[in-house]
Amino acid sequence: MNAVEKLDNLVKLYHEERLAHVYLLETNNISLAFKDLITTIKKINCPNEYAEKCDKCNICNLINQEALPSLIIVNADGNNIKKEQVLDLKRRFSFKPIYTPNNIYIINNAEKLNGASANTMLKFIEEPGENIIGFLLTTNLNNVIPTIKSRCEICSLIYNIEENKEDNPYYAVALEYIKAIELAKDDKIMYNRNIILNKYSERNDIEAIFKEILNIYLRLSVLQDEELNLKLDSLAINKRINLLITFLEDIATNANVELLMDKFIIELSDSKNESI
Ligand SMILES: [Zn+2]
To answer: Which of 25-34, 162-171, 227-236 has the highest mean pLDDT?
Structure first.
């Protein structure tokens, strides 16, 4: 089973009332896994079962805005997840869930639970209270404290990064595009036309090109590409991966392709400015 199939299986288990209380999800791509996990949570809670990628219902909208009271996402505060963050989670989930049948939490980079926060988390996992489901995400199971690991259901979400780049007819244009937009000082939007739209106008072609662009960044997140020779840190690469995932979700709807491409470039430039 691939990562998405494994997560869909959790949806199935949920409906069969066989879902465990806490899952520890190991993945080779935490941004993709997080994104897919959010979709899983929508599938579990959406009154339309997230059919046709529901973005209309109240629940899905609240999840998109990170404003659903019964979903808490814990990210590390610097290098650690702090005890206060776990205590806050515990306190907020001592109340009955609002809008959904369960309170659900996600802990990103569970390996950053250590010392006091790990002990607090451990107690919370052992005595979670009613109607609480937890997902811990990590890129390395071995770095998660064994006492926590042993109390979780473990599931690995491995994403295949396509290696046969020479076989992909879109590889050259994808590479040219990345080089241009990463090295340009300003006016990156023109590369949408100069490199892609002048040659390709079909939605399917453009979608395939952007999938290949995503593939190249995914590869970069694992190993540096000598052909590209870009000095991007993992935070910068993850920002691009997230923008590309959003782009590919949007292009699957009927949104205007050129506008989406311009939006991609503008948001990429904004994220570049932030990181400098
Ligand atoms: Zn929905």
So the answer is: 25-34
Written as six digits, the tokens of 165 are 């780049």
How many Å lie between the centroid of ligand 1 and the Cα of residue 49? Answer: 7
The domain ranges of the chain are 3-157, 165-275
> Would you state the pLDDT for residue 228?
72
- Over residues 91-116, the pLDDT tens digits come to 999 999 989 999 999 999 999 998 89
Average pLDDT score, the chain: 89
Q: How far is the CA of 51 from the centre of ligand 1 (A)?
A: 8
CA of 264 to the centre of ligand 1 (A): 25
Considering the domain 3-157, what is its CATH architecture?
3-Layer(aba) Sandwich (3.40)
Q: How far is the CA of 158 from the centre of ligand 1 (A)?
A: 26
Q: What is the pLDDT of residue 220?
A: 80
- Residue-level pLDDT at 225: 62
